[in-house]
Each structure stands twice: as structure tokens, then as C-alpha cells.
Amino acid sequence: MATMSDIAREAGVSLSTVSYALSGKRAISSATRERINDAITRLSYHPHAGARALASQRAGTIGLAVPLAADVDAHVVMMFVRSLMRAAHETSNEILLIAGEDHAATARVLDEGKVDALVVMDVVEDDPRLPVLAGARRPVVLLGYPSQAHGIPRVDFDFEQASSLAVTELHRRGARRLVMIGSPSVTQTRHATYADRATRGFEQACEKLGLRARHVVHDHEVDSTGQLIRTLLAEERPEALVIHNESALAAIHRALTDEGISMPEDLQVVAIAPQETVRLGAVEYTAVEIPVEEIGRAAVTTATALIEGDGVVGDQLIAPTLNERDTTHRLP
Amino acid sequence: MATMSDIAREAGVSLSTVSYALSGKRAISSATRERINDAITRLSYHPHAGARALASQRAGTIGLAVPLAADVDAHVVMMFVRSLMRAAHETSNEILLIAGEDHAATARVLDEGKVDALVVMDVVEDDPRLPVLAGARRPVVLLGYPSQAHGIPRVDFDFEQASSLAVTELHRRGARRLVMIGSPSVTQTRHATYADRATRGFEQACEKLGLRARHVVHDHEVDSTGQLIRTLLAEERPEALVIHNESALAAIHRALTDEGISMPEDLQVVAIAPQETVRLGAVEYTAVEIPVEEIGRAAVTTATALIEGDGVVGDQLIAPTLNERDTTHRLP
DNA sequence: ATGAAAGCGCTAACAG
DNA sequence: CTGTTAGCGCTTTCAT
Description:
Distance between the termini of chain A: 69 Å
Order of helices and strands of chain A: HHHHEHEHEHEEHEHHEHEHEEEEHEE
Strand order of the largest sheet of chain A: 2-1-3-4-5-13
Shape of chain A: elongated
Number of strands of chain A: 14
Number of helices of chain A: 13
Structural class of chain A: alpha/beta
Strand content of chain A: 15-25%
Oligomer: homodimer
Helix content of chain A: 40-55%
């Protein structure tokens, strides 16, 4: 395997010149640059990642603690992974996967400098990882918004405002009896910050508007969605639904169709979900769309800023917007 | 940050003694070992991954080229990622994610020694990556079974035998009119090796048994599953279904239920899918189960064997077995 | 615009 | 059972 000094010799220049030519950290005459590039091609040289990491104290890698638990929708996780990869790629970083559940491994990759920074997905309230990660020698970014972050920067979609917005907008469209179908019960029990915050936003908005806040949990893998919908329709007679449960969306859609419900006439519905998941067959749900791409990018940007040592980096709560589609009344 | 020589000084031993104590590559008296461990704790020492990688020429990382395309079921991908992480963990390796679509980045991490080996998911026939990867200086393992592998070791579930087995077993149970519902059309068009091989196994087994091989492609995101099932039932009057399409399984199940089909009386069904995906509500499908955990483990085992330089490693086709559940007749 | 040289923190001979 | 030492391949001061 060709090394940098092989290139230096082949190009008839010094080692450091090659290094600088590659990093672009100082001016190189186009003549030498060309000879170096030729040599690189001829010897098919590739810089050694380990050597670079040692000398520069940069791994060129960002760790991502991904949730592997079954209650987290795999599709949504993959969307985040994809967005983080894209963002990392743009700053020529790679993503090192870490099992979110493996607390020890998570701390280790940081301590050993195997990653320059760590992004933690699926943070829960009082997450046991946080106190440890707060003391790490390398930057950590939370993809989530726990109320107690131990000084670790948080990046997230504003789920509280999101469901609050859904309520307000449904109210403006005449709906008075609202029901929210939230995350699976395990997710709620773990107190995933997005679940907690979405629920809170719903309840607070309802209260402010003097509405009764009816919040149901639905495990569509276990429970019959049809049954849930029938019961709900019969007992609550809701005028609107707020759905924050990607993995149940399709099943709910199906159940509503089966019941002969037409939207928005019989029922208005707002989904809180990534854009890619809100079109079901012919209908596109009105949604407060989770901007996965933007969130991922923000997390990576925060991480790289921290890596570069750009001082203190604040929290980032991405504001929600409502996208009116087929399942709500048009406002004049 | 404490380094190894800090530990050596603190423990009053030489640098190499610390190194050997940590690697376990030579005997250390328990007295010294203890002093070293104390020092490590006291200074909270962590070996530097980059330095180790440079000196040992081992990154301690396995690359995984994951498919990010939308037609690949995210849930199944996550299952594979999880299984590879687990297997890698057992050999104290981490997983570096690479966008399967990013051909250049895939080659680069290998060339730069950022990973010790690469596992490629979602291989297609005549995969353009293979000629390049075949010439890489580090081992590559295919999670897939293209007919032309360019000398790269292949590891996969035997999808050909799997659907063939499904046919044979359905035939033994009296079914004569069979229909196979295969992967989404994009997957077929790309010629993902698992799709191609599953289809071929179905067709060959049918031919051997003198059955008409009816194979349909179904994009449940786009097409109406209900419509497909109704048409199928009306036109083909199948006695059995072979389903190889994880993302459509739930919708198909629902459609069958809606049509009032009872299994196995009206229709026998065999799914080719991971075990976790074949229970839908109260019914558990008879299935040729894709042993995700085993496949992932085999891939990592092959990769580590190659990393260790354990000579030539052969292909590995994992044999299918049928798990009789609720949707086929019991054989005497 | 280019060189020389000193590390980065570890591994693994080689030498007892 | 322990120590000495020479790198691994790069980055980055200093010099010029």
C-alpha cells in the first residue's frame, strides 16, 4: 500500500508538501500539485484513516446511537439515519452506528475517540445515559428534548407546538370534540421525549381552548385498530382526530375507510408524521409534518460546530407548520 | 487525556507492559496487573482508537453498505442492521454505515482502511459495485447471492430453495393452483438477488410438479391490495398463496380477512419472511422463515475470518425450513 | 512556495 | 515475567 512518502518520492517533493497539497492548507504551485496528483494516481494512493486520526485527533466519524427497540417505527428511524448520513457526508464524515440500548459501548466510542461526536436518538425523560454523556470529553448532541439535558445541546422538532398547532387549527375549523391517538404504550411508558411533549402540547392547547382533551394510546400491532376506531366513533363522536403514531397510520386509515367515514366531512384529521408517511392511497392527510431532513441536518451541524470548537451551541427547537391537505376543511 | 505512557509511569512499569496487560498477549503477574488497573482507573484512561488503528492496522470496524432505497422494507433492513451489530459486537467491532447507493464512498472507506471489511446488503444481479469491490485491498462479503460474484464470498438465505420448498409443501398438502405474490416491482426490476432467486425457485418447483406457475408483483403502497386479492381470487381461484413481500403482508392479510377467506380451509398460505413479521393479529402464518439473526452472524463471521486472514472462505447458503402454523393444513 | 523534523499514542518485535 | 525500541502514516510547527 502506497504511503504519503511514496508519493513524495515519486513526485520529487517533500512529505509535507504532499500533505499540504492534499489538505489544501497552504498554497502549492500548480506544477508540483500536478506532479503530486499524477503520482497519487500512478500509485493509487489512499490516505490511511488511522494515521490521519492519530495525527489530527479527528476520526472523521460521527456516532449515532440508534434505537433498536421494536416500538420505534423502523421506517422513521431509517429516515433519520438517512438524513444524518446525508448531512454527515456533506461534511465528509461517516456515521458509526451504536446500539442505543448499549450504554457502555456508547460511552466507549466517545472516550476512545472513535467518533468525534455523538448524536443520540430516542432520548427519554431522565435518560440514564445523559449524566454520563454530559461528562464525556467529546461533544454530544441529543436528538430529543428532555426537560433536564445536563447541559447537553438538544435538537428536535417542537412536538409540543406541533400538537398544539394541530389542536388550534382544528378548532379554527370548527372542531370541538377532539381525540388524539398517540404513540404506542411502550413509547409512552419509556417517556420518549417526543411522545411526552406531543401529549403535553395537545392537553395544554385543549385546556386553553376549553376543550376536553381525550388522549388514547394505541398499539396497533396488538390491539385491533378497527375496534378502537369503532369504539371511539361511538363513544366520543369526535369531530377531529390528531394522530401521532406513524406505524398505526395506515391501519387507522383503513379502519376509517371501513367505517365509511369520509374526511373531512364526517371527521377532520391531522397527522403528526413525516411527509413521506402521510399519503395513504388516494388521500393525503393534512399534517404537521416532521421535517426529518432538517432535523438530521441540524443535529449534524450542531455536532460539527462543537467539533470545531465553535464555542457554546444552543438548543434548537424546529418550529412546526401545518400543511393543509385532504382531511381538513379549507379555511376561507 | 491520559495516554498509555502516563499509565506506565503511574504504575511504575514500562509502556509495553501496559500494552500487553491490556491486550492480554502475554502473561502479566497479578501484582503488576493490579497496579496497572488501578492507574487506569485513577487516570480514567481510554486507549486511543486512532493510534491503535495505525499501529495494529486494524480499525475495529466493519462497514455495512445499507440500502436506502424506499422499495426495501425498512423494518427488515433494521432487523439486519441489528443482527450485524450484535454479531460485530461479539467480536468487539463497530459498524460503520455506508449509503449503499454511494458507490464512491463505499470504495473509499475500504481503501482508507476506515473499515477492516465491508458487508454489502441488497446486492443485485450484475451489481456495478462488485467489479470494483473485488479488487479492494480489504475483504468484502456479499449479503446476497448474485450468480456472478467476481470472487467475492456470498452469504445468504437460500431464497431459491425457500420458495421451492413452499411450493413442494403446499403441493403435498393438496394445493394444485398456486399463486406467488413477489417483491415490489422496483425490487424485481433492479434484480435484487433475493427477488430473482425466490421467483426462480417458485417457477422451477412448479414446473417440476407440473403446476402452472402464476407469479404476481404487488406494490402495496401504490396498488390497492384489496383489488389485487379480489381479482386473484376470482380469476385464478388459487388453492394456495406463496407470499414473498414483507411490506405487503399485513395488507394482504387484511384483504383476505375482508373477503371472508378462512385459512387454511379456503386458501393455504405460506409466507417467506422473517419470523417477527408473520404473526398478524391472531393468526400466525405458516412460513419459510428468513433467519435474519443467523444470516447476519454468518456475514460477520465470514468477514472476521477474512480479516484474520483465515485463507479462502467459501460461499454460504443457509438452508430453509418450513414452519407449520395456522395457514396450512396439518400433514398426518 | 517548499523542506526538515518532531511528534500523535499505540503495537510488536527483540532482548533479557 | 518485564523492559527497550523501532516504527505505523500522517499533521503541523519551524525554518527558509
